[in-house]
Amino acid sequence: MAQAPVVRLRDVTKSYGTGAGRTLVLRGVSLDVEPGELVALVGQSGSGKSTLLNIIGGLDMPDAGEVEVLGSDTLHIGDAKRAQLRNQNIGFVFQAFNLLDHLDCLGNVTIPAEFAHGAKDVEKRGLEALRRVGLSDLAKRYPAELSGGQKQRVAIARALFGAPALLLCDEPTGNLDSETGREVIDFFRELNSKDGVTLLIVTHERRVSSVAKRVIAMRDGMIVETSDDELAAANAAHGGGPA
Q: Rounded to two decimals, what is the model's pTM?
């Protein structure tokens, strides 16, 4: 029997503002992401990529449409169950790292445990997550003592803390130099191929999209046919070059 999609979207629309100031951001997006896929979502700024990612992750709600993630209808399960789904089954990695300066690396990684009642072996699992990203020896360092690449690895370790089935990444290499970005991409590829984690990565960079099993392009709130021109336009809009 075929497995159900990890992500299933049907005719998803999203707008912000009201009246004359209303902006339509997503225009009837339909999309399936299958188990074990590594998908790159590309497009110029304002195309709706990040909004779509936030809706999949339950951080935002659409105006209309159907959204199923890991078998759950996220539009109708209620806030508490939606938060539980995010905390236990979905990992998030953002361009800005989003680390808390007053917590050391281990403390940042184990933050999800604060929202999971009765979480067990928190420190052990946190150290294991840091080990997986090559930072087990930096558990007691604070964000101010880390390089950009190390901060992103801590953010990835935090995302992996709950052993998610789905990892959502929004421009995860955007603040990194080329070499460090390549290391992060290689880690994502290994996470996908060896651990079977499904990844959906919003990116404008060819070096990320080149390792994806599937590339989906967006323009003006809609999914369009993926082409080299679309990738080049997204890359140029961010001031990048071929990688």
A: 0.86
